[in-house]
Specification:
By secondary structure, the chain is an alpha+beta fold. The chain is 44% helix and 21% strand. The protein has helices spanning 3-6, 10-17, 130-139, 148-151, 156-159, 162-177, 182-199, 215-230, 238-245, 249-260, 264-279, 287-293, 299-310, 314-320, and strands at residues 21-25, 28-32, 41-45, 51-59, 64-68, 74-82, 85-89, 95-96, 100-106, 111-115, 120-129. The protein is globular, with a radius of gyration of 20 Å.
């Protein structure tokens, strides 16, 4: 059995089901959307068996639906720039992707994928099968908690971090521009899983009753984080956050920091800088323009904050990916 049959690609399966054209370029594949639609594509590479790295840019003329079925378990990581994409799995709440990085666990239960038509979609994804993860850990004599059962315990605040987004951006430009050696895709995919596992240990848990957050309140605070992520350049007012969380401002600030490990201000600032990184991919926007869009009239201050969060300046980021 070939690797592609044993470890099927979610996006290639979608293409086959909808009769989209698939063009092969060596180890790369381009999924081409119908010419009657707006121009669009999904570029994908399988560097090793059980691993796919993909980058997508398209506007579907109509809603696309596809059910992902797989005999082998895998993780699908998606860093969304824009688009209306929903994953539904029996026994779980439907997951409508918000901007930035999320994980979908694909096991023996089919996962229904829905991509809304008439809305532009742009994202980067990594699909890695459990067998690929096990092979990597065994080869390196490691038992780091990055398997699928570990991933089920990861939270949004573990996954949606700047260090994870930077690695996803490197994969995006590697796929689009053929900039990475094949082994790098595997290393970066495992790097992302290790970073997320590492992030789970970076929270400041306390025994103070004042800082204890109930599960019910945690779900409400997640709504606040989601609302900020939807449009970080126009974040909600504190009054709207209080309504979403159903709590007073002082409780909101204390419990938000307890859950996300940072103040609301710093969370918004981090979200803005992640959006700035995505905007840097648009070579029609100058760094100064991006600075202003992010709310920084002072270009030097924008650069300093971007570097503090991502570890690289905006101009060096563009030079790295030849943007």
């Amino acid at each position: 059995m070939s690797s592609s049959l044993k470890y099927p690609s979610a996006w290639e399966g979608l293409a086959v089901k909808n009769n989209f054209e698939i063009r092969e370029r060596g180890i790369y594949k381009d999924i081409i959307f119908p010419s009657v639609w707006e121009n669009g594509w999904i570029c994908e590479v399988m560097p090793v068996p059980g691993l796919y790295a993909s980058s997508a840019w398209f506007t579907a003329e109509e809603t696309i639906e596809y059910t992902i079925k797989a005999e082998e378990s895998s993780l699908l990581l998606i860093c969304l720039d824009c688009g209306d994409i929903t994953f539904t799995q029996r026994g779980r709440q439907a997951l409508k992707l918000s901007p930035f990085t999320q994980i979908i666990t694909i096991t023996d239960k089919p996962v229904k994928l829905s991509i809304q038509g008439k809305k532009h979609a742009c994202f980067t994804s990594v699909q890695i099968y459990e067998a690929c993860i096990e092979s990597f850990l065994e080869a390196n004599g490691s038992n780091y908690p990055v398997r699928i059962h570990d991933a089920r315990e990861w939270k949004v605040s573990d996954i949606d971090r700047p260090n994870v987004m930077m690695a996803m951006e490197q994969i995006r430009w590697g796929v689009r521009c053929d900039q990475l050696p094949l082994l790098s895709y595997l290393c970066k995919a495992m790097d992302i899983l290790c970073l997320i596992a590492h992030n789970t240990g970076k929270k400041a848990y306390t025994t103070s009753r004042r800082q204890h957050v109930t599960w019910n309140d945690e779900m409400k605070l997640w709504r606040v984080g989601q609302r900020i992520a939807e449009d970080p350049l126009n974040p909600p007012a504190i009054s709207e956050m209080c309504k979403l969380a159903e709590m007073c401002e002082s409780k909101l600030r204390v419990e938000f920091k307890s859950i996300y490990g940072m103040t609301i201000y710093n969370y918004i600032r981090e979200a803005v800088m992640k959006r700035a990184m995505q905007m840097l991919a648009d070579d029609g926007l100058s760094i100064k323009s991006i600075s202003v869009l992010c709310g920084y009239e002072n270009h030097a201050k924008f650069t300093a904050v971007f570097k503090k969060i991502h570890g690289i300046t905006p101009s060096d980021f563009r030079k790295t990916f030849e943007l």
